[in-house]
Amino acid sequence: MSKKRRDKHNQHSGGDGHQQPTNHCRYNPGAVQTVRVESLPNDEDHDGKEEGYWGTQIRCAKRLNAITAFGAGAAIIYALITYFQFRDVHRNFIVDQRAWLQLDERPILTFTDDNNIVAQGAVRNVGKSFALKVGYTAEVTTKLTPDEIGDYMLHPKDAVTKPSVSVIGPGQRIYMDMGAHPHPLAAESIDAIKKGTKFLFFFGTITYDDIFGGHHKTQSCLQYTNSPGGPQDCQTGNYAD
Questions:
Q1: Where would you tag: which of 43, 109, 139, 158 has the fewest CB atoms within 10 A of its CB?
Q2: How many Cβ atoms are within 10 Å of 149's Cβ, its own excluded?
Q3: For 186-212, what is each residue's pLDDT tens digit?
Q4: Can you tell me the distance from the alpha carbon of 69 to that of 80, in angstroms, rounded to the nearest whole number?
Q5: How, if at all, do strands 232-233 and 215-224 pair?
Q6: Is the pLDDT of residue 100 over 90?
Q7: What is the pTM of this model?
């Protein structure tokens, strides 16, 4: 490199050979000029088109939201309908397949030598599955009239609880000693019953479970008279669930 060029290079470089920053570039406020921004004749038209575009987008979004909400509501309604249909089908299946116990014949009342009353009857499972934990209570009373049966059934007394027979299979028929009067009757009461001047009522209640875990009760109320037709069903107190 020539001496002239080396001297010029050293003027712009430090002693270590690096170029020094220049000091002739300075901020001059007078050199800054403001620029006026003027709207073009078609700016308003452009803004109107822009506003219309976004308005259309918002309306479309609202419609989509409404359709989505309607679809969600329809799905919820369908799910509820499906649930209730399934519940009804399940309930109908249980009703069709569960055990049902009923008195297969009216209990026979027998007066014993010690002035007591014994009731014997038959119970049948008319359902399609086993009846479990079968138990029963029986009551014989002479303290009522037919008009008093309804109120008495709300708070029955003098019931004799019998041991459980455990299980009754579908279609099975069993005989039960359904209980006796809790205490001996007076001789005049027995004579009045036989003559038909005193009412005699039998109440029997059978409790059991089905194989689906349901608890059930079959209740029977019979009125005994000295008429040829034998015992008659009470006007109330006969039901099964």
A1: 43
A2: 18
A3: 778 778 877 777 888 888 888 899 999
A4: 17
A5: antiparallel
A6: yes
A7: 0.61
- Give the integer Cα–Cα distance in Å for 152 and 200: 14
The pLDDT score that the predictor gives to residue 119 is: 76
Residue 199's nearest CA partner among 141, 158, 157 is 141
What would the 3-class secondary structure string for the chain be? CCHHHHHHHHHCECCCCCECCCCCCCCCHHHCCCCCCCCCCCHHHHHHHHHHHHHHHHHHHHHHHHHHHHHHHHHHHHHHHHHHHHHHHHHHHHHHHCCCEEEEEEEEEEECCCCCEEEEEEEEECCCCCEEEEEEEEEEECCCCHHHHHHHHHCCCCCEEEEEEEEECCCCEEEEEEEECCCCCCHHHHHHHHHCCCCEEEEEEEEEECCCCCEEEEEEEEEECCCCCCCEECCCCCEEC
Structure tokens at 21: 């920053």
Question: Would you say the C-alpha torsion 114, 117, 188, 141 has a positive or negative sign?
Answer: positive
Q: Give, in order, the Cα–Cα distances in Å from 52 to each of 40, 62, 113, 166.
A: 19, 15, 106, 81
pLDDT in tens, 150-178: 777 776 655 555 656 778 999 999 887 76
**Which residue is it, tokens 């059991």?**
208
Residues in the chain, how many?
241
Q: What is the pLDDT of residue 215?
A: 92
As a whole number of angstroms, the distance between CA 155 and CA 123 comes to 24
pLDDT of residue 44: 59
Decide: 232 and 202 in contact? Cβ < 8 Å: no
